[in-house]
Amino acid sequence: MTASDDHLAYFFDINTETKESTIQYTINHKKEVVGLALHPLNNLVFAASKDKTWSFHDLHNQSCVLINEDFASSDFNLRLFNHT
Q1: What pLDDT does residue 16 have?
Q2: Contacts 24+ apart (CB under 8 A), 31-36
Q3: Which fold is adopted by the domain 2-81?
């Protein structure tokens, strides 16, 4: 997975035999993606952007589960991903 100032986050599927990668899923924001966190089960991802939004995405179903459009006032905590 990668993210950058092009407003996109990419998730790749890598063929272990050929070592070739293909884009599995893309998250699009209005401004730079500044944070990504992958759930330990590898099926949920959290994305945060300078457009003041954060979102959860289901990689298995390739869908957006939740979008919060007021990141600045959100009390969301990344410890939700801590499985301990």
Answers
A1: 92
A2: 31/7, 32/4, 32/5, 32/6, 32/7, 33/3, 33/4, 33/7, 33/8, 33/9, 34/3, 35/3, 36/1, 36/3, 36/9
A3: Thrombin, subunit H (2.40.10)
pLDDT at 84: 42
User: 26-53: per-residue pLDDT in tens?
Assistant: 888 889 988 899 888 778 899 988 888 8
Name the nearest CA neighbour of 45 among 15, 53, 54. Answer: 54
> Which one-letter amino acid corresponds to residue 48?
A
Q: What are the sequence ranges of the domains in the chain?
A: 2-81
Three-class SS state of 18:
coil
| Single-letter residue type at 25 | Y
